[in-house]
Structures are given as C-alpha cells and as structure tokens.
Amino acid sequence: MSTVHWSPAEIEAAVDAYSAVFERRNRGEVVPLRPVFEALASQYGRSTSAYQYRFRNISHVLAVMGLAWLPGQPPAEHVGPTAEATIRQVIEAKNYFGEELVEPTADPAQLERRTRALLLRGVPSAPLGRKEPQRVTTSVERFVRDPAVKAAVLEAAVGNCENCGQPAPFVQEDGTPFLEVHHVKWLAQGGSDTVTNAVAICPNCHRQFHYGIDKEHLATSLIGRIARLVSES
Ligand SMILES: [Zn+2]
Ligand SMILES: [Zn+2]
User: Fold this and answer.
1) CA 15, 18, 20, 25: dihedral to nearest 10 degrees?
2) Which listed residue, of 14, 80, 145, 166, carries a Cα 20 to 30 Å from 226's Cα?
3) 163 or 3, greater pLDDT
C-alpha cells in the first residue's frame, strides 16, 4: 500500500466510485472495476491496486455499520483509524448504502423504492416498526374513468383472465368473479380509457403487467392476441 496520505477528497472520491458501482450492479449492469480503479489512479496519482484495497476497506466499514457491501470486495480491516472515520463520515453524510432507507414514509412509490433498496443492501435484523403508524392527509391526482368501459371489459372476459386464460382466483361477496381492469397503455403514460385499451385480468397477471421484468413483451403479446385491442404506443 502507498504511504502517501489519503486526503478526505480522495477518500470521498473512492466512496463515490464504490457507491456508483454498487448502484449500477444492483440495477443488473455488468460493471468492470478495472476502469474505475484506473480513473481514480490517474486522478490521484496512486496505483490501481491501492484503490482495489481501498474498496475492500470501504466494504469493511460498511460491514461494521451493518450495511451490505459490494460482492467480490471482501472486507479488509487494515484501514487505519483516520481513513476509517473519514469513510464512515462520507457514507453517513451522503446517505449512501441505506441510512435514510429505514425512515417511514406515506408515499407508496418511496416505500417501494426503500423496500427494494433494503432487500438489495441488507434488511435490518430488528426493524423498529410503529405500534400506531402516523396518519397523514395527502392530495392524489386521479383519472376520471368510465364505469361502462370497465363493465364492458369485465363482461367480455366472462370470468377468465384475458392474459393467462385461468378462471378468476375467487368469487366476490356479490357472486361475481374477481378480475381487475388494466389499461394496456397505462393511463399514467397517456393511454386512453377505452375498451380498445383495457383488459380484465387476474391479480397475478395484473401485477406482472406493472412490475414484471417482461412487462413490455407481455403487453405487445396481449395486443396481438385480443382482437378488440388497438396498440396505442
Ligand atoms: Zn392471469
Ligand atoms: Zn394496471
């Protein structure tokens, strides 16, 4: 290892680079580390192997903080007390690696993002939770929708999911089969509220159309299979 002192700026740059790799890998990207080390090395005039070891030091600090670290960069504890404190400060100051992720939120999208991030980075062993969750009033923008469109689409499905073909998973209290109406081009993306853009599907398929890895393909294939539908993309 180099004996040249690591300035706080250099440590910060290393943590930034580490965090960026972590985020990109979590999104499924293949991120080779060599160019990352080379970029740092050319900026600060140190060997690439020094950064390689620094990454493992960062893993060590994350492990000590109870946070997830970058796979392939096993914690190396010989970091030195000053550098360790600086690495920790940078991680805490920038909210990298999950510090604010455990904050309760009333925003469903934010709740989902934080949940995903915790699953990737490490779930706290004893979540605090709330005995009496706070209530807040929020204002939500909603689409004004046509009940006749919804009814016509449900009727056309005759109790079977228009995607997988399976019968509705259960019968509701009023005796009708439970299916959900989904807009093939989402209303939020400018899709129309019409029978040529709506389908009646089971809850599993519905979730897949919103969150599935292959949701684009699913939508295209559905348009190809149901004559009523007109592509709006
Ligand atoms: Zn289905
Ligand atoms: Zn939907």
Assistant:
1) -160
2) 145
3) 163
Residue 207 alpha carbon to ligand 2 centre in Å: 7
Distance separating alpha carbons of residues 209 and 161, to the nearest angstrom: 13
The neighbourhood of ligand 2, an ion, using CB within 5 A, equals 182
Three-class secondary structure of residue 199 per DSSP = strand
CA-based nearest residue to 230, from 200, 194, 197: 197
Q: Where does the pLDDT of residue 128 fall: very low under 50, low under 70, confident under 90, or very high at 90 and above?
A: confident
What are the structural domain ranges in the chain? Answer: 8-99, 147-225
Burial class (CB in 10 A: 0-12, 13-18, 19+), 208: middle
Indicate which ligand has the atom closest to the C-alpha of 199: 2
List Cβ neighbours of 211 (8 Å cut-off, separation of 6 or more): none
Whole-prediction pTM value? 0.57
Q: 3-class DSSP state for residue 181?
A: strand
Q: Is the domain 147-225 a CATH 1.10.30.50 member?
A: yes
**Ligand at shortest distance from the CA of 165:** 1
Distance 201 CA to ligand 1 centre (A): 5
pLDDT at site 233: 79
